[in-house]
Design a protein that fits this description.
mainly beta, 4 helices, 8-stranded antiparallel beta sheet, elongated, 37 strands, about 40% strand, Beta-galactosidase, Chain A, domain 5, Thrombin, subunit H, disordered N terminus, about 500 residues, 2 domains, 9-stranded antiparallel beta sheet
């Protein structure tokens, strides 16, 4: 599973600016900028009536995010994202806003100052600078889309959720004294108001705040990228299959993320829908895991198709493969479908999934021959509000081919959606689950969820494939899968062309 693929999350952004407002620099901004740093700050410009200014950042993956900063701190900041919608973040305090040369907007006040910063990746920071005798509790009221709520996470961060889809993420709070000392900080949540609470500093002013990131939303799908594999496929011998080694996947490894010990034992499994997918990578025999999800489609990880501009070849798929045995034969590949945002060079882990059609045999498709169970494929948008540590985890089972075995291994576990970022910059959502022994070779394993909720009684649904962050995980016990922002859309696109 695990080799570097390049810059984390593959962001390319540009700020759209017009002439800046003519406000004087605010001395408090120096203390704030010393605490936050000034990397990537964007100075707001233009704006409408009642606004300090606005910034628009463009991300080649997710689209645009527009941040509008009001003159009235109570109206605060509006964040309009092309995918996830609109959120407004109110600020404590007030006063006539002033803008520093670097772009920090400060609202002067007695005993404390409020401030706003925006960065090139669309992050919005709501900040306070408090005097030694100033308050230690600050309210940041949020205006969120109808039906959305705030979910708490164990690391102190927050998610803004609407149904099962994230609208935005708020990093865990932080606070520093102007002497550089760390000050305790925590969040309380009152409805849709985030309350920042600070501990005491030693005779020093304190700078503290939160960082809001708009979540990736639906609507960015630009159609499937396709690879015609009819000349890149072949039938493998039993000996060749047994010689194949698990694929090392690309890796993106931000620091400071949460992990948890594996808690679920694995046992041998015999699901005929799951098989080993064999291929050649630079002349070396490799394998991943794939699962039948349609009469003529299998699902796997995009990094099992191509990495860093290199397209693999000599593919074959063997359902229920076990130590060289292929009870349902070996199936040649026809067409590969993956999200264009996976990219050709800087593979984006947010879109590490693909669907593959197979060549029929004797006039029959793979789903006509293999009893694959016809599990539904979904993006979980029907499930209702659920994310964060206060929500039920998803009962999940996975079946894959880890490096230590030449036979399938099934694991019953619980998965949940988490937000992963690097150094406080904008990140992405991924599913994670613990499972002992899930090492290289399980890339592409389908996440099968069991949902007893009303409307889906007894359903087993596939909602992801192992891959994405760290190529699916850089330890053998904790695994990841890309959050399917448009995975169901890609599946529907591929299914319409597969037969």
């Amino acid at each position: 599973m695990r080799l570097p693929l390049g810059p984390a999350f593959g962001l390319v952004v540009a700020a759209v600016l017009v002439p800046a407002p003519a406000y004087a620099d605010e001395p408090s901004a120096k203390a704030i900028e010393a605490a936050t740093g000034v990397k990537g700050l964007v100075r707001p410009s233009g704006g409408g009536a009642g606004e300090v200014g606005a910034t628009t950042t463009r991300d080649e993956v997710w689209g645009s995010t527009t941040v509008r900063i009001a003159r009235d701190a109570r109206r605060g900041v509006s964040v309009v994202d092309s995918g996830s919608g609109s959120v407004a973040l109110g600020l404590p305090g007030g006063g006539r806003p002033v803008v520093s040369a670097k772009g920090t907007v400060v609202y002067p006040g007695t005993k404390f100052r409020s401030a706003v910063q925006t960065t090139l990746d669309g992050t919005v920071r709501g900040l306070v600078e408090a005097d030694e005798a100033g308050p230690r509790t600050f309210a940041f009221p949020l205006t969120v889309p109808q039906g959305a709520r705030i979910a708490r996470n164990a690391d102190g961060s927050l998610d803004v959720m609407r149904d099962a889809s994230p609208v935005g993420h708020i990093d865990a709070p932080w606070a520093k004294s102007t002497k550089g000392e760390t000050v305790p900080a925590s969040f309380d949540v009152d409805g849709t108001t985030v309350v920042l609470r600070l501990g005491q500093a030693n005779a020093s002013r304190v700078v503290a705040g939160l960082a809001y990131h708009a979540a990736p939303g639906k609507g960015g799908y630009r159609g499937a990228a396709t690879i015609d594999a009819t000349k890149r496929t072949r039938t493998w011998s039993r000996q060749e299959m047994r010689q194949a080694k698990p694929l090392d996947a690309p890796k993106v490894a931000p620091e400071g993320t949460r992990s948890e010990p594996a808690r679920t034992a694995a046992a041998a499994a015999t699901d005929p829908a799951v098989g080993a997918m064999f291929f050649s990578f630079l002349g070396v025999k490799k394998r991943c895991t794939a699962t039948i999800v349609h009469r003529n489609l299998i699902a796997t990880a995009a990094h099992c198709i191509q990495q860093s501009g290199i397209i693999f070849n000599r593919w074959t798929f063997a359902p229920q493969y076990d130590k060289g045995a292929t009870p349902y034969g070996s199936w040649k590949i026809k067409t590969i479908y993956y999200d264009q945002r996976w990219g050709k060079l800087n593979n984006n882990p947010d879109f590490d999934y693909a669907f593959i059609s197979l060549q029929p045999q004797n006039g029959k498709y793979v789903g006509d021959v293999v009893p694959w169970g016809q599990a539904k494929l979904t993006d979980l948008s029907w499930r209702g509000p659920c994310s964060g540590d206060g929500c039920p985890e998803i009962p999940t089972h996975v079946t894959g081919y880890p490096k230590t075995l030449d036979t399938p291994l099934e694991c019953f576990t619980q998965s949940r959606l988490i937000y992963i970022s690097e150094n406080g910059e904008k990140g992405s959502y991924y599913y994670t689950f613990p499972c002992k022994g899930y090492a290289e070779g399980v890339s592409g394993t389908a996440l099968v969820g069991q949902f007893p909720e009303q409307g889906h009684p007894g359903y087993e649904v596939i909602f992801g494939v192992l891959g994405g962050y760290q190529g699916g995980g850089d330890t053998d016990d904790v695994s990841y899968a890309s959050y399917w922002v448009d995975g169901k859309t890609l599946f529907d696109d591929a299914a319409s062309k597969a037969i």
